[in-house]
Design a protein that fits this description.
CATH topology: Rossmann fold
CATH architecture: 3-Layer(aba) Sandwich
Radius of gyration: 14 Å
Order of helices and strands: EHEHEEHHEHEE
CATH class: Alpha Beta
Helix content: 25-40%
Structural class: alpha/beta
Shape: globular
Length: about 150
């Protein structure tokens, strides 16, 4: 497990850019953190490294924003309004969580992971926890899983 301390939204975006350069198709980045913690700032950096143009915003009400105009497709998913795996599957979002055709960044990933039965297929990628330390500082802890 690794930890990064970000002192600004710009630093959080720079970390996202680094991760986007490392990412490969089928990779899932699962984000956890309170509202306003900086999850979308991280996604903005990932999108920038993938040469994605257009506005990056949280898909809270849309559930998913697909960005296909970059080096790899980016699927930005927000599970905030869903409570469990059954609702996620019913909403048709399971394909973004297990082997997406591009890179999937999932906000509120715990809504999926905390409701999985033993032996359920996991995701390949990175699990991230973002905690606000102050108005501008964030502690970003992350760990890679799978292949």
């Amino acid at each position: 497990m690794a930890t990064f301390i970000s002192h600004s939204p710009t630093e959080t975006q720079a970390l996202g850019e680094e991760w986007g350069r490392q990412a490969r198709p089928g990779w899932v980045i699962g984000l956890s953190g309170d509202l306003g913690a900086g999850k979308t700032q991280l996604v903005k950096g990932i999108a920038r490294s993938l040469n994605i143009t257009g506005r990056i915003q949280s898909p809270t009400f849309a559930l998913v924003n697909e960005h296909r105009n970059g080096r790899l497709p980016l699927f930005h998913v927000d599970l905030y309004r869903l409570e469990n795996a059954r609702q996620i599957i019913t909403a048709g979002l399971e394909s973004y969580l297990v082997d997406p055709e591009g890179i999937a960044v999932i906000e509120w990933i715990e809504r999926w992971l905390d409701d999985q039965p033993p032996g359920a297929p996991g995701f390949v990628g990175r699990r991230v926890q973002i905690c606000a330390l102050s108005e501008t500082e964030r502690e970003i802890t992350y760990e890679d899983f799978g292949g």
